[in-house]
Amino acid sequence: MSSYRVLARKWRPQKFEDIVGQEAVVRTLQNALRRNRVAHAMIFSGVRGVGKTTIARIMAKAINCHNQAEAPCDRCPSCQAIIAGNAIDLHEIDGASNRGIQEIRDLKENIRFLPAQDRFKVIIIDEVHMLTTEAFNALLKTLEEPPEHVFFMFATTEIHKVPVTILSRCQRYELKRVPFKVLFEFFASIAGREGVTISRPALDIIASEADGSVRDGLSLLDQIFSFGGDTVTEEDLRLVLGLVDRRIFARIAASLLASDLAQALTLLNETYSQGMDLKRFSHGLLYFCRSLLIAKTSKDPAAILDLSEQEMAVIMELSAGYPLETLSALFNLMMKGVEEMQFAPHPRMVLEMLFVKAVQVGTIVPVSAILSRLDSLLAGHPEPLAPAPVPPREPSPTPLAPVPSKEEGPRTPLADQRAVPASGPRRSPPTNPAPTISLEEVLSAADTEEDSDDLESIPAPSPPMPTSTSKSRDVQRDWEAFLDHIRDRKKWMAVTLSQADKVTEEGGALVIRYEESSECHMLQEKDNRKLLTEFAQDFFQRELAVRIVVAGENGGGELDQPQEERRALAKEPRVQIALEVFGGRIAGIRTGPRSR
């Protein structure tokens, strides 16, 4: 039995005219040959299977061809020797297995001698990026000033790993991925030459799976030709290669966008039963979701996606029916799910749960919309949520109302209370103000120890000071009441403020002084200072700024001696133990003669 030559070798291009999808590179090389401007060192880069080594071999034939007018002619002894693989002056080296400095030294010794048969020696190093740093260094001087009878040609799939000192001594040729249409036509011609009838959908699948690589597509064709004989169908691709029609991705995506979870799971089960690798399938579905997003945003999606006309039409039609936010949410969910599947012991379960989340992308309400709705409810102007209403919670057995405190009687229900805007200018309270509740008070309920999911646990706002006592509140006199006001809303903030050394009102600002910056670190954060300012303005009923001053910083100066003594006494361990045992707090400390 004679040895069989696979399609990738049998139909390997032997002339420039046979190269597929690299017209710019081919034209440049042909012109260089005609004008005798061939560089002494060239490097060809690109993805696998696009013709890097093939172009290097054709150039080697063209350089030594005896018929320069039509080089390479494939008829002269030099061309025939290269085609047969026994050319003495062509040295093709695998950079992955001959990567050390000793191999490069042997090569440099070899190129010192003149060619044995042809005019030039041609050195082709495949996967040149695999050479060691020492081997690259040994090659530098030779590349810069090579002998006149030597040409170097390098091929690599990872040009970023080649040192720039090597790149600067070579002419670079970037080979691009072969477009889908070119691959489709090329594979169709190969099938005709091989006497095999293959359906158009099957060719679409193979050209898509090739992903711009001619060699990968020829390998798939070779395998399916061996199974299908003279006729190849889509069913053959599924049975032999485990490939599925890309239309299944469109059907599943349409089901997810339509919130039809049952249909999506049914299609997934059918795909799984056919033997499709789920991780490979999930990658295909992810790329389909990407195609939907690009079709929605790009002016020329066909130039980016490089798909068949039939698939492009399906993508355009499906993407046109949904907003950009929905398609973007679906793509983000798919991307996270694909990442989880890479290390999951049960990838099918991950994919099924991903479908459960994906069917809800059309009903997701942004947080900003929820907060806007809450603001409008508190202001007494309810607005509908967009794009879809949030499902209502379980009805409460009793009407929602603030919990009354022990000192005061039953409060007015929440629906009858006047809402205070979260921001904006503040007005003076009326003579007999009604109890109020603000958005900050509702949201701050989560910081209390008694927080709960129900609105019954929201602390009631502190009642305003009786007008008969005083017309306005004073910082020094009402500081303890202010701490109680904050303690109902932010307990940690009240504890931090109670440790302040001195509190004054200076020029319309509430100045809070501390001895050490560590005691007021959280208060100095932007959000917390803003919240403290709102609390101060709410309590003292006037525009107050808040300044946090630390001794020795920001012009705070040093604390006086009595303050230091009082602070030391407050930190006395016995005092702290007494406070903890009796649950008390320090009302004041005297250190002068009267205290004795």
Structure in a nutshell:
The chain has 596 residues and is an alpha/beta fold. The chain has helices spanning 7-10, 23-34, 52-64, 77-84, 101-110, 133-144, 164-167, 180-193, 200-210, 214-228, 234-241, 247-257, 261-273, 278-297, 301-305, 309-319, 324-341, 347-358, 367-378, 439-443, 479-487, 491-498, 526-540, 561-570, 573-582; strands at residues 41-45, 90-94, 121-126, 150-156, 171-174, 197-198, 231-232, 418-420, 436-438, 502-506, 509-514, 545-550. The strands form four sheets. Strands 2-3-4-1-5 form a five-stranded parallel β-sheet, covered by helices on one side.
Describe it:
- With 596 residues, the chain is an alpha/beta fold.
- Among the domains are: 7-176, P-loop containing nucleotide triphosphate hydrolases (Rossmann fold); 181-358, Up-down Bundle (Zinc Finger, Delta Prime, domain 3); 561-595, no CATH class.
- The protein is built from 25 helices and 12 strands.
- The termini are far apart.
Number of helices: 25
SS class = alpha/beta
Label the CATH architecture of the domain at 181-358: Up-down Bundle
Shape field? elongated
Strand content: 5-15%
CATH class of the domain at 181-358: Mainly Alpha
Rg calculated over all Cα atoms: 40 Å
